[in-house]
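Bench log, entry 3. Co-assembly request; chain sequences pasted below exactly as received.
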Amino acid sequence: MKYPFLRPNPPKLSEHVDALKKIESSGWFSNYGPTNTEFEKEIVNRLFQGKGYSTTVSNATIGLMLAIKHAVEIKRPSVGKKPVYAIMPSFTFAATAHAALWCGLTPLLCDIDPDTWLPSSESIEKLLKEHKGEVAVIVPYSTFGNGLDLAWYETLQHKTGIPVVVDAAASLGSYSKDGRHFGCESSIPIVFSMQATKSFSVAEAGLIYSDNKDDILNMRKMGNFGFSETREAILPGLNSKLPEVTALIALEKLNEFKDVTESRRKIARAYDSALDSSFQRQKLTGELPTYQFFPICLPDKYLEGDNRSQLIRDLALRDVEVRTYFSPVIHDQSYFAKRCEWKSLKMTERISKLSLSLPLHNFLKLEDVRFISQQLNECAATKSASKRRKNA
Ligand SMILES: Cc1ncc(COP(=O)(O)O)c(C=O)c1O
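Structure output for the full assembly:
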Protein backbone atom coordinates (compact mmCIF):
# COMPACT_ATOMS: atom_id res chain seq x y z
CA MET A 1 0.00 0.00 0.00
CA LYS A 2 1.56 3.30 -1.08
CA TYR A 3 -0.51 5.34 1.39
CA PRO A 4 -0.69 3.23 4.59
CA PHE A 5 -2.92 4.36 7.43
CA LEU A 6 -0.14 4.31 10.01
CA ARG A 7 3.56 4.98 10.07
CA PRO A 8 4.65 5.16 13.72
CA ASN A 9 7.57 7.50 14.26
CA PRO A 10 9.20 7.09 17.68
CA PRO A 11 12.66 8.63 18.11
CA LYS A 12 15.45 6.35 16.93
CA LEU A 13 17.28 4.76 19.87
CA SER A 14 20.20 3.99 17.56
CA GLU A 15 20.87 7.76 17.45
CA HIS A 16 21.14 7.96 21.24
CA VAL A 17 23.83 5.43 22.01
CA ASP A 18 25.58 7.63 24.61
CA ALA A 19 22.38 8.09 26.60
CA LEU A 20 21.73 4.34 26.39
CA LYS A 21 25.24 3.61 27.66
CA LYS A 22 24.62 6.00 30.55
CA ILE A 23 21.50 4.05 31.54
CA GLU A 24 23.41 0.75 31.28
CA SER A 25 26.29 1.96 33.42
CA SER A 26 23.93 3.46 36.03
CA GLY A 27 22.51 0.01 36.74
CA TRP A 28 19.08 1.65 37.08
CA PHE A 29 16.68 0.19 34.50
CA SER A 30 13.22 0.87 35.96
CA ASN A 31 11.61 1.74 39.34
CA TYR A 32 11.09 5.45 38.58
CA GLY A 33 14.76 5.96 37.66
CA PRO A 34 16.43 9.31 36.85
CA THR A 35 15.46 9.34 33.14
CA ASN A 36 11.83 8.66 34.00
CA THR A 37 11.82 11.32 36.73
CA GLU A 38 13.39 13.85 34.36
CA PHE A 39 10.71 13.10 31.77
CA GLU A 40 7.88 13.51 34.29
CA LYS A 41 9.24 16.94 35.24
CA GLU A 42 10.10 18.06 31.72
CA ILE A 43 6.72 17.22 30.19
CA VAL A 44 5.01 19.31 32.88
CA ASN A 45 7.48 22.17 32.27
CA ARG A 46 7.25 22.14 28.49
CA LEU A 47 3.64 21.18 27.75
CA PHE A 48 1.84 22.31 30.91
CA GLN A 49 3.69 25.58 31.60
CA GLY A 50 5.31 24.04 34.69
CA LYS A 51 1.91 23.73 36.35
CA GLY A 52 0.63 20.47 37.83
CA TYR A 53 2.14 17.01 38.29
CA SER A 54 2.53 13.84 36.28
CA THR A 55 3.40 10.21 36.63
CA THR A 56 4.34 7.88 33.84
CA VAL A 57 2.61 4.53 33.42
CA SER A 58 3.43 1.57 31.21
CA ASN A 59 0.48 2.39 28.93
CA ALA A 60 -2.77 4.37 29.03
CA THR A 61 -4.92 1.28 29.64
CA ILE A 62 -3.07 0.59 32.90
CA GLY A 63 -3.16 4.35 33.57
CA LEU A 64 -6.97 4.31 33.30
CA MET A 65 -7.17 1.28 35.60
CA LEU A 66 -5.03 3.06 38.19
CA ALA A 67 -6.91 6.34 37.94
CA ILE A 68 -10.35 4.67 38.12
CA LYS A 69 -9.30 2.49 41.06
CA HIS A 70 -7.85 5.57 42.79
CA ALA A 71 -11.06 7.50 42.14
CA VAL A 72 -13.43 4.87 43.51
CA GLU A 73 -11.34 3.47 46.38
CA ILE A 74 -9.24 6.40 47.56
CA LYS A 75 -10.99 9.61 46.46
CA ARG A 76 -14.52 8.47 47.13
CA PRO A 77 -14.60 5.23 49.10
CA SER A 78 -18.20 4.04 49.23
CA VAL A 79 -20.11 3.61 52.44
CA GLY A 80 -23.07 1.24 52.42
CA LYS A 81 -24.23 -0.02 49.04
CA LYS A 82 -21.36 0.07 46.53
CA PRO A 83 -22.05 2.07 43.34
CA VAL A 84 -21.44 -0.20 40.36
CA TYR A 85 -21.42 1.91 37.22
CA ALA A 86 -18.74 3.72 35.24
CA ILE A 87 -20.40 6.16 32.82
CA MET A 88 -18.48 6.35 29.54
CA PRO A 89 -19.24 6.73 25.84
CA SER A 90 -19.71 3.71 23.62
CA PHE A 91 -17.87 5.70 20.93
CA THR A 92 -14.41 4.95 22.32
CA PHE A 93 -11.65 2.37 22.19
CA ALA A 94 -11.93 -0.99 23.96
CA ALA A 95 -9.37 0.13 26.58
CA THR A 96 -11.82 2.53 28.30
CA ALA A 97 -14.38 -0.22 28.92
CA HIS A 98 -11.75 -2.83 29.80
CA ALA A 99 -10.23 -0.52 32.42
CA ALA A 100 -13.59 -0.07 34.19
CA LEU A 101 -14.34 -3.80 34.03
CA TRP A 102 -10.91 -4.62 35.55
CA CYS A 103 -11.90 -2.31 38.42
CA GLY A 104 -15.04 -4.39 38.95
CA LEU A 105 -17.38 -1.74 37.48
CA THR A 106 -20.06 -2.01 34.82
CA PRO A 107 -19.69 0.42 31.89
CA LEU A 108 -22.92 2.43 31.56
CA LEU A 109 -22.80 3.85 28.05
CA CYS A 110 -23.73 7.43 27.18
CA ASP A 111 -24.39 8.94 23.77
CA ILE A 112 -22.23 11.50 21.96
CA ASP A 113 -22.70 15.00 20.59
CA PRO A 114 -23.51 14.93 16.84
CA ASP A 115 -20.96 17.65 16.01
CA THR A 116 -18.01 17.36 18.40
CA TRP A 117 -18.39 13.56 18.84
CA LEU A 118 -17.58 14.12 22.53
CA PRO A 119 -19.71 12.47 25.25
CA SER A 120 -23.06 14.25 25.36
CA SER A 121 -23.60 16.21 28.58
CA GLU A 122 -27.40 15.72 28.29
CA SER A 123 -26.93 11.97 28.00
CA ILE A 124 -24.62 11.89 31.06
CA GLU A 125 -27.04 13.97 33.13
CA LYS A 126 -29.93 11.68 32.12
CA LEU A 127 -27.98 8.57 33.19
CA LEU A 128 -27.06 10.20 36.50
CA LYS A 129 -30.74 10.89 37.16
CA GLU A 130 -31.85 7.38 36.17
CA HIS A 131 -29.11 5.73 38.25
CA LYS A 132 -28.99 7.92 41.33
CA GLY A 133 -26.58 6.49 43.91
CA GLU A 134 -25.36 3.79 41.52
CA VAL A 135 -22.61 5.61 39.63
CA ALA A 136 -19.07 5.16 40.96
CA VAL A 137 -17.13 7.18 38.38
CA ILE A 138 -17.54 9.11 35.11
CA VAL A 139 -14.94 8.40 32.40
CA PRO A 140 -15.41 10.75 29.43
CA TYR A 141 -13.22 10.27 26.36
CA SER A 142 -11.67 13.31 24.76
CA THR A 143 -12.63 12.09 21.30
CA PHE A 144 -9.74 12.03 18.81
CA GLY A 145 -7.96 14.75 20.81
CA ASN A 146 -10.93 17.17 20.82
CA GLY A 147 -11.06 19.14 24.08
CA LEU A 148 -13.63 18.24 26.72
CA ASP A 149 -15.19 21.02 28.76
CA LEU A 150 -13.24 20.22 31.93
CA ALA A 151 -14.86 23.06 33.88
CA TRP A 152 -18.23 21.37 33.30
CA TYR A 153 -16.87 18.04 34.55
CA GLU A 154 -15.28 19.70 37.59
CA THR A 155 -18.62 21.29 38.48
CA LEU A 156 -20.40 17.98 37.94
CA GLN A 157 -17.89 16.22 40.20
CA HIS A 158 -18.38 18.87 42.86
CA LYS A 159 -22.19 18.79 42.59
CA THR A 160 -22.63 15.01 42.60
CA GLY A 161 -19.55 13.86 44.53
CA ILE A 162 -18.90 11.37 41.73
CA PRO A 163 -15.25 11.41 40.66
CA VAL A 164 -14.26 11.95 37.02
CA VAL A 165 -11.30 10.36 35.19
CA VAL A 166 -10.58 11.60 31.66
CA ASP A 167 -9.50 9.22 28.91
CA ALA A 168 -7.34 11.54 26.82
CA ALA A 169 -5.45 8.81 24.99
CA ALA A 170 -5.10 10.87 21.82
CA SER A 171 -4.70 14.32 23.38
CA LEU A 172 -0.99 14.89 23.98
CA GLY A 173 -0.39 17.95 21.82
CA SER A 174 -3.99 19.24 21.99
CA TYR A 175 -4.37 22.85 23.10
CA SER A 176 -7.39 24.85 24.12
CA LYS A 177 -8.33 28.20 22.56
CA ASP A 178 -6.35 30.10 25.21
CA GLY A 179 -3.19 28.31 24.08
CA ARG A 180 -2.91 26.08 27.17
CA HIS A 181 -2.41 22.37 26.83
CA PHE A 182 -5.55 20.28 27.29
CA GLY A 183 -5.92 19.47 30.98
CA CYS A 184 -3.50 22.13 32.22
CA GLU A 185 -4.19 22.79 35.93
CA SER A 186 -7.16 20.43 35.98
CA SER A 187 -7.84 18.73 39.30
CA ILE A 188 -9.29 15.79 37.37
CA PRO A 189 -6.76 13.06 36.48
CA ILE A 190 -6.15 13.04 32.73
CA VAL A 191 -4.76 9.87 31.18
CA PHE A 192 -2.69 10.25 27.98
CA SER A 193 -1.27 7.54 25.74
CA MET A 194 2.23 7.58 24.25
CA GLN A 195 1.73 4.38 22.29
CA ALA A 196 3.83 4.17 19.09
CA THR A 197 0.82 4.97 16.87
CA LYS A 198 -0.08 8.16 18.77
CA SER A 199 1.17 11.65 17.83
CA PHE A 200 3.42 11.53 20.90
CA SER A 201 4.88 8.30 19.57
CA VAL A 202 7.08 6.41 22.04
CA ALA A 203 6.39 2.65 22.16
CA GLU A 204 4.19 1.41 25.01
CA ALA A 205 3.80 4.24 27.50
CA GLY A 206 1.26 6.52 29.14
CA LEU A 207 1.02 9.53 31.42
CA ILE A 208 -1.37 10.61 34.17
CA TYR A 209 -1.50 14.38 34.69
CA SER A 210 -3.33 16.37 37.36
CA ASP A 211 -2.99 19.58 39.30
CA ASN A 212 -3.53 17.57 42.47
CA LYS A 213 -0.10 16.59 43.81
CA ASP A 214 -1.40 14.08 46.38
CA ASP A 215 -3.47 12.26 43.77
CA ILE A 216 -0.48 11.94 41.44
CA LEU A 217 1.78 10.78 44.27
CA ASN A 218 -0.82 8.20 45.32
CA MET A 219 -1.22 6.88 41.78
CA ARG A 220 2.58 6.74 41.43
CA LYS A 221 2.69 4.61 44.60
CA MET A 222 -0.19 2.47 43.32
CA GLY A 223 1.86 1.85 40.16
CA ASN A 224 4.62 0.46 42.39
CA PHE A 225 2.53 -2.24 44.09
CA GLY A 226 0.86 0.33 46.37
CA PHE A 227 4.05 0.49 48.43
CA SER A 228 4.90 3.13 51.03
CA GLU A 229 8.52 4.28 51.44
CA THR A 230 9.04 1.26 53.71
CA ARG A 231 7.77 -1.12 51.01
CA GLU A 232 4.58 -1.92 52.81
CA ALA A 233 1.45 -2.11 50.62
CA ILE A 234 -0.75 0.71 51.87
CA LEU A 235 -2.77 1.27 48.66
CA PRO A 236 -4.28 -0.92 45.94
CA GLY A 237 -1.37 -1.72 43.65
CA LEU A 238 -0.08 -3.08 40.41
CA ASN A 239 3.11 -2.62 38.43
CA SER A 240 2.88 0.23 35.93
CA LYS A 241 6.47 1.46 35.98
CA LEU A 242 8.12 2.66 32.82
CA PRO A 243 11.55 1.21 31.94
CA GLU A 244 14.36 3.77 31.75
CA VAL A 245 14.95 2.99 28.06
CA THR A 246 11.31 3.82 27.26
CA ALA A 247 11.60 7.00 29.34
CA LEU A 248 14.61 7.95 27.22
CA ILE A 249 12.54 7.56 24.02
CA ALA A 250 9.83 9.70 25.65
CA LEU A 251 12.36 12.42 26.55
CA GLU A 252 13.64 12.48 22.98
CA LYS A 253 10.06 12.68 21.68
CA LEU A 254 9.52 15.69 23.88
CA ASN A 255 12.56 17.35 22.27
CA GLU A 256 11.12 16.97 18.77
CA PHE A 257 7.43 17.31 19.66
CA LYS A 258 6.93 20.92 18.58
CA ASP A 259 7.88 20.00 14.99
CA VAL A 260 5.65 16.91 15.12
CA THR A 261 2.70 19.00 16.28
CA GLU A 262 3.17 21.65 13.63
CA SER A 263 3.58 19.23 10.74
CA ARG A 264 0.53 17.17 11.79
CA ARG A 265 -1.58 20.31 12.04
CA LYS A 266 -0.47 21.37 8.57
CA ILE A 267 -1.59 18.00 7.22
CA ALA A 268 -4.96 18.32 9.00
CA ARG A 269 -5.49 21.78 7.48
CA ALA A 270 -4.59 20.42 4.03
CA TYR A 271 -7.20 17.66 4.39
CA ASP A 272 -9.76 20.19 5.51
CA SER A 273 -9.30 22.31 2.41
CA ALA A 274 -8.92 19.44 -0.10
CA LEU A 275 -11.85 17.27 0.98
CA ASP A 276 -15.31 17.68 -0.48
CA SER A 277 -17.69 19.66 1.71
CA SER A 278 -20.12 16.70 1.84
CA PHE A 279 -17.80 15.02 4.35
CA GLN A 280 -18.59 16.15 7.88
CA ARG A 281 -15.56 17.37 9.86
CA GLN A 282 -15.37 17.03 13.63
CA LYS A 283 -16.40 20.33 15.23
CA LEU A 284 -13.45 21.38 17.34
CA THR A 285 -13.80 22.86 20.80
CA GLY A 286 -10.22 24.10 21.03
CA GLU A 287 -7.30 24.66 18.70
CA LEU A 288 -6.52 22.12 16.02
CA PRO A 289 -5.56 18.88 17.84
CA THR A 290 -2.36 17.02 17.00
CA TYR A 291 -4.48 14.43 15.21
CA GLN A 292 -3.55 10.75 15.33
CA PHE A 293 -5.52 10.41 12.07
CA PHE A 294 -7.96 12.69 10.25
CA PRO A 295 -11.53 11.70 11.18
CA ILE A 296 -14.52 12.48 8.99
CA CYS A 297 -18.12 11.42 8.79
CA LEU A 298 -19.48 10.29 5.42
CA PRO A 299 -22.81 11.48 3.98
CA ASP A 300 -25.99 9.56 4.89
CA LYS A 301 -25.99 7.41 1.74
CA TYR A 302 -23.18 5.39 3.37
CA LEU A 303 -25.64 4.14 5.96
CA GLU A 304 -27.10 1.90 3.24
CA GLY A 305 -25.93 -1.69 2.77
CA ASP A 306 -22.19 -2.11 2.59
CA ASN A 307 -21.56 1.25 0.91
CA ARG A 308 -18.88 2.26 3.40
CA SER A 309 -17.04 -1.08 3.08
CA GLN A 310 -17.18 -0.74 -0.70
CA LEU A 311 -15.69 2.74 -0.44
CA ILE A 312 -12.88 1.38 1.72
CA ARG A 313 -12.20 -1.35 -0.87
CA ASP A 314 -12.28 1.21 -3.70
CA LEU A 315 -9.74 3.35 -1.87
CA ALA A 316 -7.51 0.32 -1.24
CA LEU A 317 -7.51 -0.33 -4.99
CA ARG A 318 -6.17 3.22 -5.32
CA ASP A 319 -3.42 2.44 -2.77
CA VAL A 320 -5.05 4.38 0.09
CA GLU A 321 -5.62 2.65 3.43
CA VAL A 322 -8.36 4.07 5.65
CA ARG A 323 -9.97 2.79 8.87
CA THR A 324 -13.19 3.21 10.79
CA TYR A 325 -12.64 4.52 14.34
CA PHE A 326 -14.74 3.65 16.35
CA SER A 327 -16.63 0.97 14.57
CA PRO A 328 -17.62 -1.42 16.02
CA VAL A 329 -18.49 0.70 19.04
CA ILE A 330 -18.25 -0.75 22.56
CA HIS A 331 -21.82 -2.11 22.73
CA ASP A 332 -21.42 -3.88 19.38
CA GLN A 333 -18.44 -5.94 20.57
CA SER A 334 -19.48 -9.35 21.89
CA TYR A 335 -17.35 -9.28 25.06
CA PHE A 336 -18.68 -5.88 26.08
CA ALA A 337 -22.28 -6.42 24.93
CA LYS A 338 -22.74 -8.94 27.76
CA ARG A 339 -21.10 -6.74 30.38
CA CYS A 340 -22.19 -3.15 29.63
CA GLU A 341 -25.53 -1.40 30.00
CA TRP A 342 -27.07 1.12 27.64
CA LYS A 343 -30.38 2.33 26.26
CA SER A 344 -30.74 4.50 23.18
CA LEU A 345 -27.43 5.58 21.60
CA LYS A 346 -28.78 7.20 18.45
CA MET A 347 -25.88 9.53 17.67
CA THR A 348 -23.29 6.89 18.50
CA GLU A 349 -24.97 4.49 16.06
CA ARG A 350 -25.08 7.10 13.32
CA ILE A 351 -21.59 8.54 13.65
CA SER A 352 -19.92 5.15 14.07
CA LYS A 353 -21.61 3.81 10.92
CA LEU A 354 -20.47 6.84 8.93
CA SER A 355 -17.04 7.46 10.40
CA LEU A 356 -13.93 7.17 8.29
CA SER A 357 -10.38 7.82 9.48
CA LEU A 358 -7.80 9.01 6.98
CA PRO A 359 -4.01 8.54 7.27
CA LEU A 360 -2.18 11.24 9.16
CA HIS A 361 1.46 10.67 10.01
CA ASN A 362 4.71 12.56 9.89
CA PHE A 363 5.86 10.97 6.64
CA LEU A 364 2.87 12.34 4.69
CA LYS A 365 3.63 15.21 2.34
CA LEU A 366 1.08 17.81 1.38
CA GLU A 367 0.89 16.37 -2.16
CA ASP A 368 0.08 12.97 -0.58
CA VAL A 369 -2.78 14.58 1.32
CA ARG A 370 -4.07 16.14 -1.89
CA PHE A 371 -3.81 12.75 -3.64
CA ILE A 372 -5.66 10.89 -0.85
CA SER A 373 -8.37 13.57 -0.70
CA GLN A 374 -8.80 13.47 -4.47
CA GLN A 375 -9.21 9.66 -4.41
CA LEU A 376 -11.85 9.93 -1.71
CA ASN A 377 -13.66 12.81 -3.45
CA GLU A 378 -13.66 10.84 -6.73
CA CYS A 379 -14.78 7.51 -5.22
CA ALA A 380 -17.64 9.21 -3.40
CA ALA A 381 -18.65 11.21 -6.51
CA THR A 382 -18.62 8.05 -8.65
CA LYS A 383 -20.92 6.39 -6.13
CA SER A 384 -23.33 9.35 -6.29
CA ALA A 385 -23.25 9.36 -10.10
CA SER A 386 -23.92 5.60 -10.36
CA LYS A 387 -26.78 5.94 -7.86
CA ARG A 388 -28.29 8.82 -9.87
CA ARG A 389 -28.06 6.68 -13.04
CA LYS A 390 -29.79 3.79 -11.25
CA ASN A 391 -32.63 6.05 -10.06
CA ALA A 392 -33.09 7.72 -13.49
C1 LIG B 1 -9.66 6.05 23.62
C2 LIG B 1 -8.49 5.24 24.02
N1 LIG B 1 -8.32 4.94 25.32
C3 LIG B 1 -7.27 4.22 25.75
C4 LIG B 1 -6.32 3.74 24.86
C5 LIG B 1 -5.24 2.87 25.36
O1 LIG B 1 -3.97 3.41 25.18
P1 LIG B 1 -2.69 2.48 25.34
O2 LIG B 1 -2.49 1.81 24.02
O3 LIG B 1 -1.58 3.41 25.69
O4 LIG B 1 -2.96 1.49 26.41
C6 LIG B 1 -6.45 4.03 23.49
C7 LIG B 1 -5.47 3.52 22.54
O5 LIG B 1 -5.53 3.73 21.36
C8 LIG B 1 -7.56 4.80 23.06
O6 LIG B 1 -7.75 5.11 21.78
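Residues 59-61, 92-93, 95-96, 141, 167, 169-170, 193, 195, 206 surround pyridoxal-5'-phosphate (CB under 6 Å). Strands lie at 53-57, 85-89, 106-110, 135-138, 166-167, 190-193, 206-210, 280-281, 294-297, 355-358.
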